[in-house]
């Protein structure tokens, strides 16, 4: 079984890649979806509320991007649980003999999870494109978009660390073609 970790900067196209892979019939597990499920668990909600005095995701987002220590607190709550769940899912799919399993993990390198995967893929784009997509998608200011972008490992570094890099500065169709080409390499 090939276990592939997909990462990339915010607003670089990870969701488009996820959607495309799922349409092609591949099993894709998204760490953001795992985190959303964790936020629904009472014990996690209580722990987050104890630290941030809120469970409102937008307010927490504002807090963590304004305060690196607060971001570390949130990550210390969520990341170990996500890591453990990823390990469980890999074992489950190995037993089921799933041929290729994809994980989409925005902070794959930041959380030092790369050793869980046979192959890593970075989806990157220009900062200008990231900013424009973030502003449009999340209805935020340029300054807020830049704070989010700067809170992550730079795309160039992710590209250096990954086995493969897909640059997404074009259309959705162009990105899908790049994913298709990469799939052929991985499956050969």
Shape descriptor reads globular
User: Care to count the β-strands?
Assistant: 5
Count structural domains. 1
Q: What do the pLDDT scores average to? A: 95
- Provide the CATH topology: Rossmann fold
CATH class: Alpha Beta
Q: How would you sum up this structure, described in words?
A:
It is a single chain. This protein is an alpha/beta fold. It has one domain: P-loop containing nucleotide triphosphate hydrolases (Rossmann fold), CATH 3.40.50.300. Helices cover 60% and strands 14% of the residues. The protein has helices at 14-23, 31-39, 42-52, 57-66, 68-95, 127-138, 142-150, 155-161, 172-187, and strands at residues 2-8, 27-30, 100-104, 119-124, 164-167. A five-stranded parallel sheet has the order 2-3-1-4-5, sandwiched between helices. α1 (14-23) packs across α9 (172-187), α2 packs across α5 (68-95) and α6 (127-138) packs across α7. 25% of the residues are buried. The model has no long low-confidence stretch (mean pLDDT 95).
Describe the structure concisely for a colleague:
The chain is α/β, with parallel strands linked by helices and 188 residues long. It is built from 9 helices and 5 strands; from the N terminus they run E-H-E-H-H-H-H-E-E-H-H-H-E-H. It has a single domain (2-187), classed as Rossmann fold (3-Layer(aba) Sandwich), CATH 3.40.50.300.
